[in-house]
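stage 2 :: seqdesign
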């Protein structure tokens, strides 16, 4: 057999071997091997600050899997929960720690806070490694009265848990025959407590596109300009009351106007109830939700619709079921939702959604997802035939019986399992070097 063929076979066997010899040679005196799965963590910073463990590229080589998850707090900050899951020689061990980042905390403050909590969680597992001899524990005592002061400040919250936000942005771009302008603004007010959740928002968007092209040829040629304008304004309110650890009740209200939707004004009011099979306290790891609501939708139109109406008010009900989980093997989200008008049960929509990411084996990950919807409830479609410009520029919604979206991706990484070294040289570089 030619040497190149033997080399190719050897490399292929090494890449496909699910447990290389060096990875199987583990003993109690080796460095702790950690696989970190933490989106908000600055991995370079973590590796620089925590150099007494081996950071592994693949979970299959690790003694400890650290899985981070985050959720928004009532004040607009984020609570990060870190699960420490023992593997191999630490099988059966598990811990959970958390870190709460304030709404106005800097990125550096958040990464330092997460690194500190990460170090605290590692201590139990580092204790049996050579690195334990290099660990020193220091406790800084707070100034007298600080704890009492902090508690009293929380109790005297002058905002009563309300958080307000206001913002907006715009952009423009163009060429000699085209220009585009888009402006949007938003105002929000939120209040989250153990018993109540209130979200209020007002949003607006204005978009203008202009296209110039030559129509005809020769002496009859002339420039033609097409202008497309879209306006969408929306105000929404969500009020939810926690009934117990698994059940909540509330209502959604939406009102606004949309040139794309052919509405001069619309308002939807829908009370609903939601039940979570798992306690809400486990929502960052797993959820199985069921919801049902019924309410009214009123709309007035810019143009006469395909049902010969300029306005109408209809009763409607809706339901959804959704399962989501995030585990060491990956994460998944599966859901189905739909709504139906009472006055004509043939008018409905039904949507299926799935998103899955799986770590199949060493270094190989697979992610896929998509959604598919049956559309049978387009009450606001304009009766007249749209112009070619309106169709191509999506100025108004078009009649359809379904919508879909899909995505698929995979990746495979192999090579050195340890990734402790941080080297940021040329990270921002965009040039190249040619050697002669």
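stage 2 :: out
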């Amino acid at each position: 057999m030619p040497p190149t063929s033997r080399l190719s076979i050897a490399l292929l066997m090494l890449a496909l071997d699910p447990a290389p010899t060096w990875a199987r040679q583990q003993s109690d005196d080796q460095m702790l091997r950690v696989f970190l799965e933490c989106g908000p963590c600055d991995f370079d910073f973590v590796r620089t600050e925590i150099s007494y463990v081996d950071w592994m590229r693949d979970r299959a080589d690790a003694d400890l899997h650290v899985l981070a998850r985050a959720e928004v707090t009532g004040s607009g900050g984020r609570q990060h929960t870190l699960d420490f899951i023992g593997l191999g020689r630490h099988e059966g061990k598990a811990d959970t720690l958390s870190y709460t980042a304030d709404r106005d905390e800097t990125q550096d403050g958040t990464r330092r806070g997460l690194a500190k909590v990460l170090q605290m969680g590692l201590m139990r597992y580092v204790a049996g490694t050579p690195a334990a001899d290099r660990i020193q524990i220091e406790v800084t005592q707070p100034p007298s009265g600080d704890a009492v002061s902090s508690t009293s400040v929380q109790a005297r919250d002058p905002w009563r848990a309300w958080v307000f936000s206001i913002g907006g942005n715009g952009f423009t771009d163009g060429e000699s025959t085209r220009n585009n302008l888009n402006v949007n603004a938003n105002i929000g007010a939120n209040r989250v407590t153990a018993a109540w959740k209130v979200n209020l928002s007002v949003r607006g968007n204005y978009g203008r596109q202009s296209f110039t092209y030559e129509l005809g040829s020769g002496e009859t040629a002339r420039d033609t300009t097409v202008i497309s304008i879209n306006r969408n304004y929306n105000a929404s309110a969500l009020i939810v009351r926690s009934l117990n650890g698994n059940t909540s009740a509330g209502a959604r209200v939406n009102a606004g106007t949309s040139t794309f939707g052919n509405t001069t004004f619309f308002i939807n009011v829908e009370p609903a109830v939601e039940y979570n099979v798992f306690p809400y306290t486990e929502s960052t790891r797993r959820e199985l939700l069921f919801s049902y609501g019924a309410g009214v939708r009123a709309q007035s139109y810019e143009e006469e619709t395909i049902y010969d109406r300029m306005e109408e008010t209809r009763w409607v009900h809706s339901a959804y079921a959704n399962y989501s989980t995030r585990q060491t093997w990956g994460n998944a989200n599966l859901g189905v939702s739909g709504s139906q008008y009472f006055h004509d049960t043939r008018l409905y929509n039904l949507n299926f959604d799935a998103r899955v990411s799986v770590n199949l084996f060493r270094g190989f990950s697979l992610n896929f997802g998509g959604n598919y919807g049956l559309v049978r409830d387009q009450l606001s479609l304009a009766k007249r035939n749209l112009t070619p410009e309106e169709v191509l520029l999506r100025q108004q919604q078009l009649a359809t019986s379904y919508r879909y979206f899909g995505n698929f991706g995979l990746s495979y990484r192999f090579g050195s399992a340890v990734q402790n070294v941080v080297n940021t040289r040329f990270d921002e570089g965009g040039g190249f070097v040619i050697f002669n």
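stage 3 :: structure notes
- The mean pLDDT is 83.
- The chain has two domains: 28-134, 165-412.
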